[in-house]
């Protein structure tokens, strides 16, 4: 802007023109407006400072929280940090029993390139607090006890068992790749006077009586079970339990096992509950299953699709029936074969077509069970009374035992 564009300069001092009242008032007004604007600017500046402060605080808070969360996620590595040991380890250390320092399970898995195999349902637990918690669920383990661990894998739960110092530990693992890591644990357990035996076998074929011939010592069955065989193994063990054979020649052999969460809930489901099924009834005839706790899927490596339930399965001192296992299993399976129908529908398929309706009615009457209940509404006692009625019916009609309603043509009809 040139000097001529700026207009005449105002001169102050004696030569300055005197302002009249209107001009003074106008100046006062301008002055007030300026003051107002300055105040407003000050307010805006203060607000800006406050906002900046709040934003800064939020950023710091988010940053701090992230650091905290990352530390939380480190739980898988806790095993590697001697300073951050779990309470269980601290207790054991203070009591003098101690495994020598070992590489972490995570490191062993890396070192031996033990990639999980899906076909063997391998999901490893690396968190010592969780493996300790599973073993703690088994209750007291004395130094005269024997523990059989199913599928020890790289040995996470095995370490927790060793810290409880049983007299003997049998490890049954189908995958031979884990032999070296398990041998390492066996060496570490030697000074603690724990006999560790490693069997490269399938638990479904493992002959417990052969490996534990006498019954003077209490036996614990523990395992983070492979999903693929968990139900079959449990049913096999109920069969053994009903015959007092295998691991169940003593009546105090408890099982502490993991299952998919839904399966664990079904095992423990009570009458009328949504999850009540054949497995609930079968489990509750010979044992008292207790759902101890749930392990989130993310605690496993690799992470399975589902969460996992830890169930302690305690054999009943007096089983609820003396009937043979296959007969009970057959009756319960038929009852639950049509879950949403009246229970008489499934049960009736135990019987040949000829006279089926009348015989079914008669057997329900003999059992004193209402035939219009749904299978999930039946108590264990009611299922067993139906099994008793069927067993009595077989005495008079032994040929019915072989009847298979799915078979194309039955000689009996
Ligand atoms: C879910 S992983 C548990 C591994 C380890 N106990 C843990 O908690 O990290 C199941 C283990 O059972 C083993 N396994 C699978 N089928 C088996 C079978 N039929 N008999 C014995 N072990 C089996 C697998 O190789 C695997 O090591």
UniProtKB/TrEMBL annotation:
**Matching CDD domains:** AdoMet_MTases
The record, for SMART domains, names: rADc
Question: What GO biological process term is on the record, naming one?
Answer: transcription initiation at mitochondrial promoter
Alphabetically ordered keywords of this record: Membrane, Methyltransferase, Mitochondrion, RNA-binding, rRNA processing, S-adenosyl-L-methionine, Transcription, Transcription regulation, Transferase, Transit peptide, Transmembrane, Transmembrane helix
Q: Under the cellular component aspect of Gene Ontology, which terms does the record hold?
A: mitochondrial matrix
**Any transmembrane segments, and where?**
49-68
Q: Which domain of life is it from?
A: Eukaryota
Predominant subcellular localization, coarse grouping: mitochondrion
Alphabetical list of Pfam families matching this protein: Coa3_cc (PF09813), RrnaAD (PF00398)
List, in alphabetical order, the Gene Ontology terms for molecular function in this entry: mitochondrial transcription factor activity; RNA binding; rRNA (adenine-N6,N6-)-dimethyltransferase activity
- What is the E.C. number? 2.1.1.-
Q: Which PANTHER family match?
A: DIMETHYLADENOSINE TRANSFERASE, DIMETHYLADENOSINE TRANSFERASE 1, MITOCHONDRIAL
The record's comment on protein family reads: Belongs to the class I-like SAM-binding methyltransferase superfamily. rRNA adenine N(6)-methyltransferase family.
* The name this protein goes by in its record: rRNA adenine N(6)-methyltransferase
Q: Which organism encodes this protein?
A: Drosophila navojoa
Organismal lineage: Eukaryota, Metazoa, Ecdysozoa, Arthropoda, Hexapoda
